[in-house]
Write a sequence for this structure.
């Protein structure tokens, strides 16, 4: 099956810093989503991005499907950005989740 | 517009008891997914329904687990009998799919945190 690897596994930032999270996948996919799991456990949709670049406020994402990776950029990080960021890729109907990047933003 | 609704949000039960988790997908969505999240295994797909029909239940861990979707707005995941190793967060998600291959965005419910003592 498809392997989804995320890096780094853990990240600690000072408030205001920028960061880049990476998602590599081992085969072609139909779709890709980025999620943020907040400290209360909720999975929040960030981006639905099978290819190209999207931006939403301080967050943006780029997927290069032909090279099998996606990047999530967080600028001017805030303490509320803390949590786990998951990349999930889809072939047919099934999403395969990466193991996540655990982000902690310090005030 | 309401998102995916799950109940209960927390469930504590004793080993051997039956547990029923409930999910109401987003109105109009025709694909429904049950996931389990643990520290050891991360997020795992348990079962996928399309148009109320189970398409893939290969992730259901064993016969103690069963899932139903009697109509487009309701699904249940049942564990009978429950065991301590079933303790996890169970998520339901839905999406708007066209046919078996869904190309659309998946939305998650808040999850049910299950503790089996």
């Amino acid at each position: 099956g498809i392997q989804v690897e995320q890096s780094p596994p853990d990240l600690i930032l000072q408030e205001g810093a920028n960061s880049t999270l990476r998602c590599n996948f081992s085969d072609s996919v139909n779709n890709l989503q980025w999620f943020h799991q907040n400290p209360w456990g909720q999975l929040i949709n960030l981006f639905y991005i099978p290819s190209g670049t999207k931006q939403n406020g301080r967050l943006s994402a780029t997927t290069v499907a032909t090279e099998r990776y996606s990047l999530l950029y967080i600028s001017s990080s805030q303490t509320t950005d803390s949590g786990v960021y998951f990349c999930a890729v889809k072939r047919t109907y099934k999403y395969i989740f990466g193991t996540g990047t655990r982000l902690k933003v310090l005030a | 517009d309401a998102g995916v609704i799950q109940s209960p949000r927390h469930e504590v039960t004793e080993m051997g008891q039956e547990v029923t988790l409930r999910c109401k997908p987003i109105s109009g969505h025709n694909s429904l997914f049950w996931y389990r999240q643990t520290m050891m295994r991360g997020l795992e797909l348990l079962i996928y329904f399309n148009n109320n029909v189970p398409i893939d239940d290969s992730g259901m861990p064993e016969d103690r687990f069963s899932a139903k979707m009697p109509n487009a707005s309701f699904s249940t995941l049942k564990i009978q009998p429950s065991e301590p190793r079933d303790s996890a967060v169970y998520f339901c998600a839905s999406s708007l799919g066209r046919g078996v291959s869904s190309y659309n965005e998946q939305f998650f419910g808040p999850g049910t945190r299950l503790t089996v003592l």
Summary: The mean pLDDT of chain A is 95.
